[in-house]
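Dear colleagues,

For the upcoming journal club I promised to circulate an example of a predicted protein-ligand complex. I picked one with FE2/S2 (inorganic) cluster because it came up in last month's discussion. The inputs are reproduced below in full, followed by the predicted structure.
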Amino acid sequence: MSFHPKMAYDATFHRSARRREDEGPPFAYTAENRARFDEIVKRYPPDRRRSAVLPALYLVQHQHGYITANGIRHVAELLGITRADVEDVVSYYSMFYTKPVGKFVLNVCRTLSCAVNGAERVTEALSTKLGIKPGETDPTGTFTLMEVECLGACDRAPIVMVNDAWHECVKPVDAARLVDDLRARGEVVLSGCQHVVERRR
Amino acid sequence: MDPILTKHVREPNSFTLDFYLQHNGYEALKKALTLKPDQIIEMVKASGLRGRGGAGFPTGMKWQFVDKKIEPRYIACNADESEPGTFKDHLLMERNPHLLIEGCAVGCYAIGARVAYIYIRGEFFHVQRILERAIDEAYAKGLLGKNILGSGFDCDVYVHRGAGAYEAGEETALLESLEGKRAQPRNKPPFPAIVGLYGKPTAVNNVETLCNVPLIVSRGPEWYVGLGPEKNGGPKLYCVSGHVRRPGVFEASMNITLRELIEGHAGGVRDGRTLKAVIPGGSSVPILLPDQLDTQASFDAVQKAGSLLGSAAIIVLDDTTCMVWLAENLLHFYRHESCGKCTPCREGTDWLHKILRKIERGEGQMRDLDLLSNISANIAGKTLCAFGDAAVTPVVTTLKHFRHEYEAHIKEGRCTLSADWRARQPVGAH
Ligand SMILES: Cc1cc2nc3c(=O)[nH]c(=O)nc-3n(C[C@H](O)[C@H](O)[C@H](O)COP(=O)(O)O)c2cc1C
Ligand code: SF4
Ligand code: FES
């Protein structure tokens, strides 16, 4: 049996679907990040500086909020690889942002164990509260809503990762309040990661 | 069996070096440094320790295969833990990081490596902080670094954090990612034990695997073998999640049955519901049905029952779960995580997901079911890495056991389960 998906065989078809990164302002690490970078590079053999590309990109993202073409250029120069090499990596890994994101990125886990515990309702509640769909940023630039795959803490489902911090056991009814709490008090409202074994036994 | 790996995880300071040293910490490393590297490999072989990352391959054999003629050699600890349903390595690293560091050091000594990289997944930012703090503590006490405990053995341990890619858990993709490239697998053979990180011999081991090594060295392989059924010795961590009252990580010997884990440790299926299906080893393995609950939760017994123990991630599903939706949910995962290197997997997972979504919406046709089987058959076994087989498993196994649900979706044009099947309320157990 053959299966022919409908494809857009028009003039745009052979062009990359991915928009190029923003040029962004001129970029160089701050002195502090540069020191951190120099320290990280030492972990790898001297002729294998390329290994540091992920930590180097994290530093760019941390400093600028997202990864720009100038950021990529800076990393490429420091590591002695081509810009294409760095772009290759940026476009592959899902935790690098190539456009601006909100101050709080709400990553709701949508995979099985979270989904059977109401993750879809959590996304729905956040989406309604913020008036945006998953993948979008609200007009004030404070919140970005995303759906992500299993975060590796399925016993505390559903999980929402806010930037680098975790918020666990989010009940759908509490989801909307999380937005208000974050706005008022910042990341301190998050539960963090609280694995418990052999609970109540 | 009393917990061993997770014995102290509930104590507030369990992650500090002081606490670890008070509980016989780094004794195994001290003992190992008085032995010959080959003796340690022999001990691990005698213990029958099987890899906890998914494949269950004997660790001692893997270490023996590492080419000892080529320098330098490496250990890459696989802490990518991304298989849906798995959260045991996470717990170990968070609450018992020194056990992993000790395991890395002993492993390095055994295969003659001087550097171990712990590759953790991008989302584990808090774990990175804990591990790095623990590593700093170990350096300060001379348990890592140059001339460890005056033995002349040097060992460095570094944490390398990924950036969001399930495929980075595949051993060769992990090495590519460590080298600063896309996490796409390499052709095997040559296996990493011969040509691994930077082209040098490398042992890729899961976190839980390495955490078992200090136990074997300090208490001996006979004790270890005696803990479980034949060829399945040692303590094992089980992750139980889904529709159970008390989800969590449970440590047991592999003598335990799935029933004891689900109904005993995890408190059984949530109130008023009955069990529908169990996924015993992470989303990539076939479903087991309620009448198979008495299966022993060991690598061999689960395989005999028609599934795989995989990463021991037991996902429990009750009678409210729609199996078409389940396949759709998991194929969304696989479609998103395919690394795109081979065509059947890259394109096929997308097709499967599209068709499943169509059926789930009630717009499917009967011939779509044959199409699903056909596409699955054209992915499984035809791809570079095991991801392809994993990705089609949810489709094949639900079609096998729950074909009537697919047919009902198509005939009725909707899901026939009650309206609240998507778990409007979470299990109230936390
Ligand atoms: C698609 C795919 C994903 C994998 N993900 C992981 C993972 O997240 N963690 C892990 O330890 N092993 C994972 N593995 C298994 C590894 O390839 C490898 O078998 C394991 O790290 C070996 O360690 P072990 O012998 O200690 O189990 C994965 C394999 C495949 C094919
Ligand atoms: S099977 Fe899939 S994940 Fe594995 S190499 Fe091929 S495309 Fe990549
Ligand atoms: S399914 Fe959400 S953390 Fe695993």
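Two points we might discuss: Chain A touches chain B through 61 residues (CB under 8 Å). Chain A has two domains: 31-92, 104-200.

See you all on Thursday,
B. R.
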